[in-house]
Amino acid sequence: MTNRRKDSLTYREDAVATLEAHTDAVIREVNRLAVLAGIDVVRVKPGAAPRAVLQMTEEPGSHLAVRARFHPAYASYFASGSVVITLPEQAEDLLELLLAAGSTRRGAITGVVGSHGGAGASLLASWLARILSDDDGTGLIDLDPLSLGLADGVGLQSSPGLRWADLNEDAGALVPGRLSAALPHLGDLRVLSADDRGAVPPSGESGARAISALSQVHAHTVLDLPRDAGAADSHSREWLEWCDTVVVITHPTTHGLKHTQQILSNLPSHGRGIVAVNRAGSAGEVAALALELGDQTVLPVHRLRNLEQDLAHGIRLGDRSRSVTARDISKIALACQENT
Predict the structure, then answer these.
(1) Confidence of residue 81 (pLDDT cuts 50, 70, 90)
(2) Chain-centroid distance, C-alpha 100
(3) pLDDT at site 172
(4) Domain finish residue from 75, 102, 129
(5) Are 230 and 333 members of one domain?
(6) pLDDT number for residue 1
(7) What is the DSSP letter of 182?
(8) Share of the chain above pLDDT 90, in %
């Protein structure tokens, strides 16, 4: 079963999956698989109303088994009826069902794209993800096919964990919990980055699988998008389609604002655009830029002094939490959260 975007399925209930069981071995095995799938399984009493996407009931008998069925509201997407799965022999089959159920739920996804080269998209994406991770689990995905890696900015360049080069492009669906646990992390921030061995494949499929997986297990997922993501005919356009919010970062130049308008005009119908402006001047200038861009949300980003020296000395993006830059990016984070 394939993962689907948020707007593919409209039915919503409190739980992704429920389990009616009394045998400890069944409960342990289902919970183990649920951790891999990155979803919570809610225990229910016998005869409880079937509200969840996936409902599992322990089968009576000498063998450990569960009967699994999807809620009728999902009949258009998943098979109807029920199936009996023996554990642990058919654990992979149950994991597939759990992954399918998990694909109907995800956290907020924010994309960051530069309107031109040198706009500072990777810096903003990394710092924004760091701030969001202070409140909830956050994933940061490096989606620039030309990237050399963004783990350096958050001090994870030497940390153990998977990078893009370690992921098999033909591996199919990624298991959310397993992928998240295998990534380099700083607190509640998990990072999937390029390194000197390679970056995300440009076809779009591998990136989409990573977005789907990490967004299922994190409250926020931040995408560092390549510049061509805003073009209607690019492969990376598919990644933009996942975003609830797209932050376009630009310099306040005629060239930068023109490209910003083009990106904003190509946003997905469910997405909201926020413009972050480097080197903006007064509040009046910011207001004028918002008007010029069609009454968009425009927020300034002041450059942190001695940023390069900080990074060279091991100071991570977000460590200087009392700087003007940190306050600016915190306002962008708040604007992104208000859209979820």
Answers:
(1) confident
(2) 17
(3) 65
(4) 102
(5) yes
(6) 31
(7) T
(8) 50
Spatial CA neighbour of 78 closest among 176, 16, 9: 9
Binned at pLDDT 50, 70 and 90, residue 2 comes out as very low
pTM: predicted TM-score of the whole model, two decimal places: 0.81
Rounded distance, CA 37 to CA 31, Å? 10
β 41-43/17-20 pair status: parallel
**Cα–Cα dist 272/244, whole Å:** 6
Token pair for 182: 């295998």
Cβ atoms of 238 and 208 closer than 8 Å: yes
Q: Taking 60 as the threshold, does the pLDDT of residue 249 lie above it?
A: yes
Q: Any residues with CB less than 8 A from the CB of 254 and at least 6 apart, and which?
A: none
Render 185-250 in DSSP notation, one character per residue. Answer: EETTEEEE--BTTB---TTSHHHHHHHHHHHHH-SEEEEE--GGGGSTTSTTHHHHTT-SEEEEEE
Q: Residue 200 domain-assigned?
A: yes
